[in-house]
UniProtKB/TrEMBL annotation, chain B:
Protein name (database record): ABC transporter substrate-binding protein
Keyword annotations: Signal
Keyword Cell membrane assigned: no
The keyword Signal is annotated on this UniProt entry: yes
Gene3D superfamilies: Periplasmic binding protein-like II
Signal sequence interval, chain numbering: 1-24
Superkingdom of the source species: Bacteria
Lineage: Bacteria, Bacillati, Actinomycetota, Actinomycetes, Micrococcales
Length: 352, 450
């Protein structure tokens, strides 16, 4: 307590004393002049319109300590906004191995990189492959993950072991997964031999048209546990009473699953779908290790394409332009998706 | 985008370093003539991580640092990188900020790219004198140190020439007294030793390797008189290139002298197959395969030979054409232009390219010396004859910043042809269109050269 400013000192003391007096008669509005009277009714804020709320800005909005957002905001600017702007700036430069030395002085060429990215590279092919493969892999992984979650929902002997085993593909580093599968898929490898022993000749797995399906297969193998995890989390949120109630109503297992359990899962699953999609679109390690560089035409995915442009051809400007174009191409459907599933409302789970 | 983000992070890191360097003080040191006195200074050297001999590399670093301290009084600090990309990023940030390693070890094929950044010191005659003169080095190794003899940035440090390994027992059984020196002759020999029923093949080829294929195409084209790049013109559409591809694919589809499974092999898998005694020849290998072969079931039955130097379809070396027994491969040392320790840097290069140090390095890591005397002294060592000869007859790939692109274009033709290769026939039309695609891309890269 300061001694120089006695006025404020005494005020603090008075307030402290009031608080110390505990659940005393003064439950109502305080006499403190710097606290607005509306503060006294904070309890009715959610769901109900207060009279105060009708008068323009609500009370809770007016006194929000927005400055507390500053650290987060600064971090967001440094980590996301500045690099993004730099990336966009780079995409407007003729930046390659020849101009790298003074990259800030690299010739400004406007949208020439964008024109080249769109007309002379396999960008659209890459985007199409990336998105389609991600979509197929996610859609197929989804029922597998949910089924696994439902199967391990009820306690049985050894459930902990089964649940741990389910997580193995998810825990293994991408590099390891890809290396192991590459060994199995190569000509004369175990998968090739198995097909041949069955009298089938599927052709090559690591070159040619089959590569696309090889990639999807390995991706599903590596990523279904993620769906499983989120579905499991969703299942944990189902109230016990709901199970009992539906059992009392005599619902069969399918009806129960369809009309009771799945609504609870809608939120976690929509989330899993979008995160899974983005993870797959971003996955570089898997195709890189499975197929190498240069990639076979059927798996010339977006990350691989950007990598080759940046680090094999050293065309940093062009590669930045490609990244920006693909960002836009992917952000649009993403935005629509988020609007449609309304992920923020999903927290209410099965209340609908 | 993961990569977008990475590039952005790299960019911001670069910017941050740039900002920091602006604050840094410019403490330049004036060097006195005569012996370099580096007391109190630190020389920073960036080298690639040796994944095959990590412990030995650490030992070599500390030994070298001790010797350097003794000679100059300066401290030697090593930094390492694990890939060309990491090295490029390092160069990028260092060059922009004007501080970083003083000396870089670069792969030979990366040297043109490094040269095109303009970040490295072009060595003058007096610089060369400080490191023992150009005569100190295997002259072939200087071939990729710069665009011409007066603009050299790279000092040869180690050579990894490519040769072929052969199984002496198999050759003897087939009545062949010595390995072929023409590509056509090699195929004839390979046919005699191929017996698919026994799982035995004439050649082990790594069709799916990420580097091997373009080296064959380049080699055969050069031997037929086409260097692939002529000034600013790409010459991939030349008939010699198509012959090279047809020959390379033909070993599997037409001559049937290689294991069909090799369409999925990388170099190390082909080596493993050869080491198990199933193949007569293993092409495109270097001294790095010695440890594997010396521990293999055929450890007493193998040796190295030069790869054929006569182009496919020809019977004798064309007058005037370069032998091109191997691409010029190995490591160069370059000095950063921004380095404030230029004399110390040269003193370091002088130390590690001396005959004794080079022989020591060869003993530890297997890479051949770039020092001419050291190389000559190895002639009689086991398996070394062909390697040293290949080192002397290596030829540099075209010195252009576009080469890394062209290399990729050449490789891409093979990657996209592998499904056809596996089904037994690479059609003429498909090959033509892939080659013309590669030609276009190569020409575009050359057009951008500044």
């Amino acid at each position: 307590m300061t001694t120089s400013n006695s006025a404020s000192g005494t005020r603090h003391a008075a307030r402290a004393a009031r608080r110390a007096s505990g659940p005393a008669p003064a439950v109502g509005p305080t006499n403190d002049p710097d606290e607005s009277p509306t503060r006294s009714v904070p309890a009715i804020s959610e769901g109900f319109e207060t009279p105060a709320g009708k008068r323009g800005r609500g009370p809770s909005e007016r006194n929000r300590p927005l400055w507390m957002l500053i650290p987060g905001g600064v971090l967001m600017i440094i980590v996301i906004i500045v690099p993004l702007l730099l990336g966009i700036y780079m995409s407007l430069l003729d930046l390659d191995q020849y101009t790298l030395r003074q990259w800030i002085e690299a010739p400004f060429i406007g949208i020439a990189n964008y024109i080249e990215a769109v007309t002379q590279t396999n960008l659209f092919h890459g985007v199409w492959l990336s998105v389609s493969y991600s979509f197929i892999a996610t859609v197929i992984a989804m029922p597998i993950g949910i089924a696994a979650a439902v199967a391990t929902q009820n306690a049985f002997k050894g459930r902990a072991v089964v649940r741990s085993v389910f997580l193995i593909p998810y825990i293994l580093p991408s590099f390891v997964v890809a290396t192991v599968w590459r060994t199995m898929f190569q000509p004369g490898g175990i998968i090739d031999k198995s097909f041949h022993s069955l009298g089938a000749d599927p052709g090559l797995f690591l070159n040619g048209p089959n590569t696309y399906w090889t990639l999807i297969f390995v991706q599903i193998w590596a990523s279904w546990p993620f769906i499983y995890l989120l579905a499991l989390a969703g299942l944990q949120a189902v109230d016990h009473e709901v199970h009992e109630a539906s059992a009392l109503d005599g619902a069969l297992w399918w009806t129960k699953l369809r009309y009771v359990i799945f609504p609870y899962l809608k939120g976690p699953i929509s989330l899993a779908f979008i995160i899974g999609m983005l993870n797959h679109i971003n996955n570089f390690t898997l195709p890189f290790v499975l197929f190498g560089i240069p990639a076979p035409h059927d798996v010339e995915l977006l990350p691989v394409l950007t990598y080759v442009t940046s680090f094999q051809s050293f065309r940093f400007g062009l590669s930045a332009a490609m990244a920006v174009v693909s960002l836009i191409l992917i952000a649009i459907p993403l935005f629509i998706y988020l609007r449609v599933v309304k992920l923020d409302e999903a927290e209410q789970g099965g209340r609908k | 985008m993961r990569f977008g983000t990475k590039a952005r992070l790299a960019a911001i890191a670069t910017a941050a370093v740039f900002a920091l360097s602006a604050c840094g003080s410019g403490s330049s040191s004036s060097s006195s003539g005569g012996a370099v006195n580096g007391a109190g200074k630190t020389l920073d050297v960036l080298v690639g991580v040796n994944t095959a001999y990590p412990e030995q590399q650490k030992q070599w670093m500390s030994d070298t640092a001790a010797k350097f301290k003794q000679q100059t009084g300066a401290t030697l600090k090593f930094e390492t990188f694990t890939s060309a990309n990491e090295e490029l990023t390092r160069i990028q940030t260092s060059v922009v900020s004007g501080q970083g390693p003083d000396v870089y070890a670069l792969g030979t094929t990366f040297t043109p790219t490094a040269y095109s950044t303009g970040a490295f010191k072009v060595l003058t005659d007096s610089d060369w004198n400080k490191i023992g003169g150009k005569d100190r080095f295997n002259q072939a190794a200087l071939g990729i140190s710069g665009p011409d003899s007066s603009h050299l940035i790279g000092v040869p440090f180690a050579s990894r020439p490519f040769v072929m390994a052969y199984n002496k027992t198999m050759l003897k059984a087939a009545g062949i007294d010595k390995p072929a020196t023409t590509w056509d002759g090699l195929v004839d020999q390979a046919k005699k030793m191929t017996d698919p029923a026994k799982g035995q093949y004439g050649m082990a080829i790594a069709y799916k390797d990420n580097f091997d294929p373009w080296k064959y195409i380049w080699g055969m084209s050069v031997q037929a008189g086409n260097p692939l790049v002529d000034g600013k013109t790409a010459k991939l559409d030349d008939p010699t290139v198509k012959t090279a591809y047809s020959t390379y694919f033909g070993w599997l589809t037409k001559d049937k002298v290689v294991n069909p499974a090799s369409v999925g092999w990388s170099n190390s898998q082909a080596l493993a197959d050869f080491a198990s005694g199933k193949d007569a020849y293993f092409l495109m290998t270097s001294s790095g395969s010695i440890p594997t072969l010396d521990k293999s079931p055929i450890k007493d039955q193998w040796d190295y030979a030069l790869m054929p130097t006569v182009a496919p379809g020809q019977t004798s070396d064309k007058a005037g054409s370069n032998q091109a027994a191997s691409i010029l491969s190995g490591d160069n040392l370059v000095v950063a232009s921004y380095s404030k320790n230029q004399d110390l840097a040269l003193a370091y290069i002088n130390l590690v390219t001396s005959k004794d140090e080079q022989l020591n390095y060869q003993k530890i890591f297997g890479d051949l010396p770039a020092n001419a005397d050291a190389l000559a002294s190895l002639d009689s060592a086991p398996h070394m004859a062909a390697l040293t000869q290949a080192a002397k007859e290596s030829k540099a790939t075209p010195f252009t910043g576009a080469w890394s692109d062209i290399q990729l274009d050449l490789l891409n033709v093979v990657v996209q042809s592998i499904p056809d290769l596996s089904s037994g026939n690479v059609s003429d039309s498909a090959l033509n269109s892939r080659i013309s695609d590669a030609q276009n891309k190569a020409q575009q890269s050359l057009n951008r050269v500044k």
